[in-house]
Amino acid sequence: MRIIRSATAMTAWSRKLQREGVVIGLVPTMGALHDGHRSLIRKARLSCDAVVVSLFVNPAQFGPKEDFARYPRPFKADAALCREEGVDVLFAPSHEAVYPPGFQTTVSAGALARRWEGARRPGHFDGVATVVAKLFGLVTPQVAFFGQKDFQQSVLVQRLVEDLNLGVRVVVCPTVRGEDGLALSSRNRYLTPAQRRSAPVLHEALQAGRTAILRGIRFGAQIDRAMQKVIQTDPKLRLDYLAVCDPETLEPLPRVTKTAVLLGAVRLGRLRLIDNLIVRLGGK
Ligand code: AMP
User: What is the 3-state secondary structure (H, E, C) of the chain?
Assistant: First the structure.
């Protein structure tokens, strides 16, 4: 496995492979890799000739009061996981490689970026869209792999690719969970044992929403209440939002008549947890 840190080396590697007709798959990450990331890498390995994992903790997607400085950076363990999974290139650029002196052009995400996570984290999705566009420019993958775990991000990236004609196929991979249902996340390591016991309640709430829909409840407000009741069973959790939404526009659905996505976020101590479930009517 090659570890590449500079923009010029990354571009030289990918342009050479492109000329040889190699299909490059990119898995963008912020590191602190876990089995969720691993599932994306495996999917890329199966469908592409060469796999690039990018590892960049992008300051532009953190708010001033967020945990950029404290974000975990276990580089050796990350490199070991990538090696184990047969990754061809670990692209771990320096800050200057991504944002060189004079950098000033950014991507402004649209209405999708203003709801839910975007409303709580102003500028977050502009930061995500900008870095994804940069990574696509540097790595020039034909395919890029994202997790459903960050549902809003995955919808936004698909929009970005379409709106700016970036010519990358976006594959969204299912959320990998612990045995108790908690979605794996790099920040879970900061949960205390007691918080860790409370954390799966978010998934349980979303499941209650799904059960309500599958039992024939169609009004968004009623489904919201079914989910909220579950969050209220645990005083450690502070509800941020729970909503039944259209999976493309992310607008709340007053009535569920087709596939819906249940989006949820809670606060647990200093951490925020997000999760989601897709509910297909008439399907699985
Ligand atoms: P991050 O390192 O948190 O920026 O995540 C990098 C990619 O991994 C994103 O596309 C995430 O959606 C995805 N991801 C994170 N956690 C999971 C998970 N539990 N299951 C599947 N994909 C995940």
Answer: CEEECCHHHHHHHHHHHHHCCCCEEEEEECCCCCHHHHHHHHHHHHHCCEEEEEECCCHHHCCCCCCCCCCCCCHHHHHHHHHHCCCCEEECCCHHHHCCCCCCCCCCCCHHHCCCHHHHCCCHHHHHHHHHHHHHHHHCCCEEEEEHHHHHHHHHHHHHHHHCCCCCEEEEECCCECCCCCECCHHHHHCCHHHHHHCCHHHHHHHHHHHHHHCCCCEHHHHHHHHHHHHHCCCCEEEEEEEEECCCCCCECCECCCCEEEEEEEEECCEEEEEEEEECCCCC
